[in-house]
Amino acid sequence: xxxxxxxxxxxxxxxxxxxxxxxxxxxxxxxxxxxxxxxxxxxxxxxxxxxxxxxxxxxxxxxxxxxxxxxxxxxxxxxxxxxxxxxxxxxxxxxxxxxxx
Length: 101
What we know:
By secondary structure, the chain is mainly α. It has one domain (3-77). It has helices at residues 9-22, 27-45, 63-77, and strands spanning 3-4, 7-8. A two-stranded antiparallel sheet has the order 1-2. A hairpin with a 2-residue loop joins strand 1 (3-4) and strand 2 (7-8). Helix 1 (9-22) packs antiparallel against helix 2 (27-45) and helix 2 runs antiparallel to helix 3. The longest helix has 19 residues, at 27-45. The protein is elongated.
């Protein structure tokens, strides 16, 4: 494992991202960084013997619901863009009264 100043670096990245998410600093960007870190952790844990993959602590299996939660967070935080085909996402115009004859 990569160590800087005697500490495991990936753990500190995870803690720093959690703090950034807690203080609501660019949640979508932080969630994207968390997904990258989750993928790195998943690849690293695949190097463990396969008996550990589905243990009660499930180092690989637990990442699936976490990835879904992070993708949901990204989807909820990203601003919506107008449709590419030119239709505006605006509220409809108020109905006009018909003229009385």
